[in-house]
Amino acid sequence: MALLPLLLVAGLTLWSWARPLVGGRWRRSPGWFTGTALLLLVTTALVHFFGLMSGGLDVEEACREAGQPYDHVYRAARQEEREEYTRWFPLSNECNAGYDLVPGWVNPTVAVLPVVAFLCLVRAVGLVVVRLRTPGGAAAGTATGTPEEAARITR
Fold first, then answer.
1. How far is Cα 146 from Cα 139, in angstroms, rounded to an integer?
2. 3-state secondary structure of 96
3. CA–CA gap between residue 82 and residue 142 (Å, rounded)
4. Same-domain status, 95 and 61
5. Could you say which of 92, 93, 129, 150 has the lowest number of CB atoms within 10 Å?
6. Over the stretch 45-63, which tens digit does the pLDDT of each residue have?
7. Are residues 63 and 81 in the same domain?
8. Distance (Å, rounded) from C-alpha 84 to C-alpha 93?
């Protein structure tokens, strides 16, 4: 029952994000690109948290549940070598030399999504600059875009 408000917020967010895709308005909307960047950064944080928590608080038990032997000596050597289990990126939580509890898709996702978010922000800034440099561009970018509103804004 506690999950229902979270699902409702996620559904409304995705619906409001996807609406411009249907009408094709997303290509000229700096707000859409900024919102997309924000969604990508939130998704990055959630995926990173998922990767951090893979294995939970008891790694030895998580390894047993995954059907992998827990190698105390290997983990101790890796931890002394590079402080592997306290770094932010790349995420790793190894049971032994051949098995990592962090899924293989987590690190590429954590690396790629912020780059795409940055590109979305660059596109949003580019759209704003073009809109401001184009004569009547600020008026053309209004919500209604009617000639009366354009004339009112440019006065």
1. 9
2. strand
3. 54
4. yes
5. 129
6. 999 999 989 888 888 999 9
7. yes
8. 8
